[in-house]
Structures are given as structure tokens and as C-alpha cells.
Amino acid sequence: MKQGFTLHNALFIGFCATLLVAIKSMMRMKLGLTGHSMFLISLFYLVCYGATNKVGSMTLCGLLTGMLAMILGVGKGGPFILLKFALPALAMDLVLIFMANMFTLRWRCILLAIIGSIAWASKSWIQNLLVGMDPQVAFIQFGLSSVKGGVFAIAGALLVPVIINRLDAHDLLTTNKAAHK
Amino acid sequence: MSLLALHGVSYRHHSSSIDLFNQLDLTVAAGECHCILGVTGAGKSTLLQLIAMPNDVDFDGQIIHHPNLRLGLVMQDPNIQLIRESIGAEVAFGLENLAYSVNEMFSLVEHALAIVGLDLPLDTLVSHLSLGQKYRLMLAAQLVLNPNLLLLDEPWAQLDNSGVSELNLVLQRLVDSGVSVIMTEHHADAFAEVIQTYWLLAQGQLTHVEANSINVVSASSILKDQCCEPDLDFSVPNTNSAANTQSLITDEVCATENRLSIFPLKVQFENQTPVVEIRKILHLNAGDIVGLFGENGSGKSSLLNQIAGIDDSNQADILLFGKPAKFGRFNKDLGLLMQRPSRQLFEVTVRQELEFSLKRFHLPLSRVNEILEQLEISHLETQSPHKLSYGQQHLVALASVLCVKPKVLLLDDPFAGLDEQYFTNIISMLTAFARHGGTIIITSHRPILEALLTQYWQIENGQLTTKALL
Predict the structure, then answer these.
(1) Residue A166 contacts B, CB cutoff 8 Å
(2) I need a surface site. Which of A11, A95, A158, B143 has the fewest CB within 10 A?
(3) In the CATH hierarchy, which fold is given to the domain comprising B219-467?
(4) Which pLDDT tens digit goes with each residue over B171-222?
């Protein structure tokens, strides 16, 4: 059995990245709620992980999403948009290395979603520090963003086991032994 | 020369706790024809897929492909493999990938289609083909690449009698020229002339069986047993006779209650010549069981789609319960089992699949257990219907249709992929269904269940004719 990404995996990750950018660009909801973008980010990244059961799938999805968003001009921030999407994915994958076989899929997703939201908020933290914000204020801002983003990220993460179970029931996942525990 | 070798192959699906295969050994040399027998759900199709694509599946043991192996696989449901719009493009797909020139392709494609008896223009749309024709098409798409090992998944179920005869000739020619064949079958007797070695796949083990020890139970012999039940009398069936119908049904349903009337009509695709023409008025009453027979592509499924109202081009000429056939109008009174059962399965487990319709029509959920037990598929209850074998999917789809107790049941080739045990179970259920006033139309490539039928419809040369039963 091949250990790397199969064509099947690659197509699925590309599909998730495209769908994430498409939904974000079509649904321009001005909710005024900090962190609501973490709902889709956490949902799609974790579905990628659940479907492929491979470390690196979320980073791949994040990089693809960031590049697509940058090229298509979705959201504000220019090249920073790449960081916005890739940073949470990278952090989630790094943590996943240490907890790949721990907990059930549901709890793994929740923990990864929290890690992702912290990484997502750290981008604003770095930006705030670079523009000269008081470190204490920047840290409080970072904490608030992490909590708000975390709430949305967990909401997205809770949907992942349901989606994975349905994909598995339809025999769309080829090798997913660990992901279903 | 050994083209393929399996050594100690074990496999377990990740959602199962039981080994589907346990230490399988098989060697196939050039020019050999092997047949794998086994009950519905034994893992025959999975074994063929494992042989064809070992890199895509986690398994233990070794599957060795000879370096010169050119493998062709035709799956039980050819729709899974079809990717192009026209039949010419479909057969040419493999050649295109091998960089054949256009001039070379034409003759090769036409030759491959001629071998399988699919005599149609190359620009014929694949979507216009019947399932049996699609099976032939996929066979041509494999043969055009000159495979030296051909894997066939239950060809008897999808092909009509002439298709089976043609395939026998093709296989004999291929085997004589050194091509190897592995097929899975419930009806191995149909290919007895070409099969050299028989294997039985049961409880995860592949055991060699002698040809003369195979107990092939044909549909007719099963039916004979059914007809010996003391409370049934099919000895003198009488076409569309109210008296005969009355003997089948209980007192609570009026035997002359008209369920379906079909007035003269033509079934045809847009801007094409008619596939089927009906020239006289047909009536079906409560308790009628109709056999609709015809070769691959004769228009059986198309007619059934019109009766169900999926295709409404002849809506005014088909009256169901006295009303024009319209999809969704008759709710639970009309049940349709499609030829590809996967098209009507969508839930996560078999139980949920059956409960869906019951909940929709506010019927007791206890019917799920009843029907699962009657069909002897209780062991599938928690499994995903999408991961079941083709035959098992047929059983689940039929159970989901039957559990709401419709008044009219349309069954499009319901016995494909089923072994004799399940075949018998279904016949028992359908007999009981008709006795309680249900009306059934069953389509098939070949005449079956003749002793059970009250009407016999045959599509031949584009005409639907009714035949008197003996």
C-alpha cells in the first residue's frame, strides 16, 4: 500500500481548497464577528485530514487555499492572506504529529481546531506588534481573537466526524482505519 | 507462464471485524479460464478488484503480476467504469492513452464493438444504452486493448441469452489464443463450455471444486419448488383472467380492481426512432404478476420509467390508479426497484435506509425487522448499503420498497447478482405480495418465473406483444 498522497487524496484536498475559497468569495457576509472565518477553515482542513488520514494534508490544503485566495483576490491582506490560511494548517499538522493516534476523531478535531485558531490569531498579533501596538494590548487582542476564533473553529470541528462517517458510508474513503477510531 | 499469482492473501474491510479473505492462493497461467463461485456477498467482486488494483487496497500476502500482464476488468455495474459520452469515444479511450493514430483507432474500435455484438453507430450516446448494452460496451473497451488476462464480474446477470452465447464464443476464441479469464458467476453453467477450473469462495477461503460437483440451481427449478406449496395453485395459469387472479389474492382486495392501463403508445428518445411500440390496450388488475421480457436494449427499463412517471412523454397514455402516470403522485402506492439499486440507496446504514420510507409515510418501524428477517438479511442491518455487493444492494433496495407495502411494484431486473437462496426468498415474498392484492411488473433479459405470471409481455423487434401462458 502506498504511504504518500495518492491521486485520490490530492484531488480531494484540491477540491476542499477550491470549495473553501469559492464559499468565502460568494458568501461575503459582514457578520461583524471576529473569527467567523475559522468555521470554514477548521471544517475544510479537518475534513481533509479525516478523509486522507495523513499528516500534511491540512498544510497542503492551507497552502492551496492561500495561493488561490491570493491569486483571485479574495479577502484583504494581499500576500498576508497566504499566511492567514497556511499558518493555522501548519500548526494543526505539527500538533497532529504528536497526537495522531490519541483520542477519538471528535476530540482530535476539537483540539486541532483550538490549535488552529491560536495560530490564526497569532497572525494578527504579529501584525499588531509590527505596527507598534503596545505589547500588552496586542496580547489581550490575541487572546480575545483566539477565544472568538476558537468558538467558530470548534463548531466546524464538530461537523467533521459526521461528514467523515457519511463519506465512509458511501465508500468514498479508501484507507481510513485510524481516522475512524 | 504464470500471469497472476496470489499467495496467502488475507483482507479485511476496515469497518468489519471478520476477514473477508483468509490466506487465498491462486495461480493463473496463460490460456486458462477460471470461474469463482460463491453466495451473494461472499466477496467475489472485491477479489476481482483486489487482483486488478492491489496497490489501492491494504491486504496481507502477495499478489504477483507478470511483467507482461495486460489486465482487463469488467465490473458488475459497468456504469462505474464508463467515462465518455459516445460509445466510439469510450472504446477509443484506452487507445488514445496509448497514442494510437486516429486511422488505426477506427478499425480497432469497430472490430471490438463487432466482437461483443454492439452494432450501433460510433456516435451513439452511452446514456441511451441499456445496462446490458453498457456491459457489452465495457467489454469492448477492454478487448480493444488486447488484454492477456480478462476479469469478468457476473456477466450472465447483465447479458441476455444472445449476449451470453456471443460472449461464450469470444471467450473460447480468447482462451484458445492464450488469453486467461477469471470470471465470477452464480450461473456458471452458462459458460461451462469455456470454464476449465472452478473455485468456491466461502467463509474467506478459496477452494477448488470439480465441475461435476457444482450444484447449479436454475430459476425454473426453484420455481418448481415454489409451485408445490399447498396453498398455491399455478398449474393452469390463465392470461389476465379474473378467475385466475382471484385465486391468488385475499378476500380483502377486489381482484378486478384496475391498477394500470396502458393505451397504444411509442417509447422513444428525442428525435430517434421508437424503441418500443405498444399497439393494443393493456390492463393490469390487483394480484397480477407480469413478466416483461426482451433483449438488452429492447426498451424494458424505458417503459418502466414511463409507467413510474420518471419519463412523462407518454403521460396521457398510461393510467395508474386511473390517473396519468406522474412521478411522485402515488406516494407509497407505487414502488420502483431500479436496475442499478445503488441509485436509490442513500442512507448510512441498511436499517436507516428502510426506516426512511416508513418514517416518511408514518408507518410502524417494526416492519424493518420483519422484512429483514423474511429476506434473511438481518446481518446487514448496521452495514452501509453503499459498501454491499451488487446483489445485496438489490436485496436492500427491494426491502426498502416492499416495507411500505405498495399496491403496484415495478421491478427492473431484480434478480441480478443473487444466488439461489435469495432468489427463493424473493419469489416467496413476491408471491405473498401478489396474494395480498399487489400488482407486480418484473423485467428480465430472459423469460423467468413463467409459472408464476398472470401476464407475459415480450418486446421483440420494437413491438410489445402479450403471450398466452400455458
Answers:
(1) yes
(2) A11
(3) Rossmann fold (3.40.50)
(4) 898 899 889 999 999 888 889 999 999 999 998 899 998 877 665 544 444 4
Give the pairing type, strands B408-412 and B439-444.
parallel
Which CATH number is A7-176 given?
Answer: 1.10.1760.20
Rg (CA), chain A: 16
Question: Could you tell me the CA-to-CA distances from B408 to B351, B437, B443 in Å, in that order?
Answer: 23, 9, 14
Amino acid symbol at B34: H
The answer to whether A169 contacts B55, with C-beta atoms less than 8 Å apart, is no
Instruction: Find chain B residues with C-beta within 8 A of A170's C-beta.
Output: 384, 386
Q: What is the pLDDT of residue B214?
A: 67
Q: What confidence tens digit (pLDDT) does each residue in B218-274 have?
A: 444 444 444 434 333 333 333 344 444 444 444 445 556 788 999 998 888 777 788
Query: Are B349 and A169 in contact (CB < 8 Å)?
Result: yes
pLDDT at A2 over 70: no
CB-nearest to A1 from B58, B347, B387 is B58
> How do residues B411-436 score in pLDDT, each as one tens digit?
998 988 888 888 888 998 999 999 98
Pick the residue from chain A with its C-alpha nearest to B54: A1
- Distance CA(B400)–CA(B344), nearest Å, equals 9
CA distance B238 to B246: 11
Helix (H) or strand (E) holding B324: strand B323-324
Q: Which of B345, B348, B383 to probe by mutation at the A interface, max A CB count within 10 Å?
A: B348
Which chain A residue has its CA at the smallest distance from B55's CA? A1
- How close B56 comes to chain A (CA, Å)? 6
Q: Tell me the whole-structure pTM to 2 decimals.
A: 0.79
Closest CA–CA distance from residue B346 to any residue of chain A (Å): 8
ipTM value of the model?
0.71
Amino acid at B72: G
Query: Which DSSP symbol is given to B235?
Result: S
What B320-327 contacts at long range (C-beta under 8 Å, 24+ apart), as own/partner pairs, is B320/B259, B320/B260, B320/B408, B321/B259, B321/B407, B321/B408, B322/B258
Domain boundaries, chain B: 2-213, 219-467
Q: Chain B: nearest CA to A27, how far in angstroms?
A: 29
With CB atoms and an 8 Å threshold, state whether A171 touches B14: no
Q: Nearest to residue B59, comparing CAs of B49, B73, B71?
A: B49
β-strand pairing of B197-202 with B33-37: parallel
Task: Identify from A105, A162, A171, A180 which residue to disrupt to test chain B contact, counting B C-beta atoms within 10 A and taking the largest count.
Answer: A171
- Min Cα distance B446 → chain A (Å) is 32
- Label residues A70-85 b or e (16+ Cβ within 10 Å = b): beeebbeeeeebbbbb
Instruction: Show residues of chain A in contact with B56, CB under 8 Å.
Output: 6, 174
| Burial zone of B109 (CB within 10 Å; 0-12 exposed, 13-18 middle, 19+ buried) | buried
Name the fold adopted by B2-213.
Rossmann fold (3.40.50)
Please indicate whether, in this complex, the C-beta atoms of A170 and B15 are within 8 angstroms of each other: no
Tell whether A98 lies on the interface with B, counting CB pairs under 8 A.
Answer: no
Residue A76 has pLDDT above 90, yes or no: no
Strand-pairing partners, residue B202, are B205
